[in-house]
Amino acid sequence: MAPLKNILYLFDVDGTLTKSRQIIKEEVRNFLFQELSPRGAVGIVSGSDFAKVSEQMGGAEVLSQFDYVFCENGLMYYRKGELINKKDILEYMGEQKLQKVINFCLGYLSKLELPAKRGTFIEFRSGMINVSPVGRSCSQEEREQFAAYDVQHKVREAFVEALKKEFSDFALTFALGGQISIDIFPEGWDKTYCLNHVENDNFSEIHFFGDKTDLGGNDCEIYNDARTIGHKVMTPEDTIVQLKKLLSLS
Which enzyme class, named as a word (predicted)? Predict the structure, then answer.
């Protein structure tokens, strides 16, 4: 099959290329670089920062093999490990508004009773605020415990509704991120933001693969964007199955 370099294959990370906050499996990584890369450009888009994405992909050297790396929804744009473009939520919102959002989150979190609570409940990133009711320093077991509890009790969904009501005039988006958190960012700074960086690269098709594609999930906007062909996946294994079918390899 001749290389089709005018096609971009773009992937979410958690739940799509890896289990949530886990390292990519060797067979998934090998498929991307040995089978997929000769057929088009390969990129990833994540709400996480560069350090977390790098860790999950197996290190900066592996990450540099991707044609495109969009961290924090594309607010941090890397090519071959080099930072090309950066946008700052503090500069955009200002300290006063930012603190109002953070203070509200801290107050809301203080009233929640969960199976477990640990540390790092609010993580300030360049392009967003990440809020985790259980705390990002939780163990993998505690992460899974909260995820199951959240499915039953809709903790994050209720939190999002409270945020929307409180900050209806702030032009912010509140999206479920991964298993344990909520991403808060200005409207338009969702994962579709990364598409701005490739609009002049003349791709005939952009295929996006993600798991949080339902309304309120942080893959929803880019999955439904007219510029992409969306593929909803359930696991990293499902991602490979769908890719093989798309490429007529199975």
Answer: isomerase
Asked whether the predicted pLDDT for residue 250 surpasses 80, the reply is no
Binding residues: 12, 14, 21, 125, 136, 143, 181, 183, 211, 223, 225, 228
pLDDT tens per residue, range 96-149: 999 999 999 999 999 999 999 999 999 999 899 999 999 999 999 999 999 999
* CA nearest neighbour of 229 among 198, 200, 204, 194: 204
pTM for the complete prediction? 0.85
88 in catalytic set: no
Distance, CA of 138 to CA of 200 (rounded, Å): 41
As a whole number of angstroms, the distance between CA 213 and CA 177 comes to 11
Kindly report the length of the chain: 250
Q: H helices of 186-235, where? A: 220-224
Query: In this structure, are strands 129-131 and 181-186 parallel, antiparallel, or unpaired?
Result: antiparallel
Question: Nearest-5° angle of CA 193, CA 194, CA 199?
Answer: 100
CA distance from start to end of the chain: 14
Q: Contact at 8 Å (CB) between 84 and 100? A: no
Domains by residue range for the chain, with CATH: 7-87+189-246 (3.40.50.1000), 89-186 (3.30.1240.20)
Mark the binding-site residues for alpha-D-mannose 1-phosphate, compressed into ranges: 21, 125, 136, 143, 181, 183
Residue 67 catalytic? no
Given a cut of 90, whether residue 249 has pLDDT beyond it is no
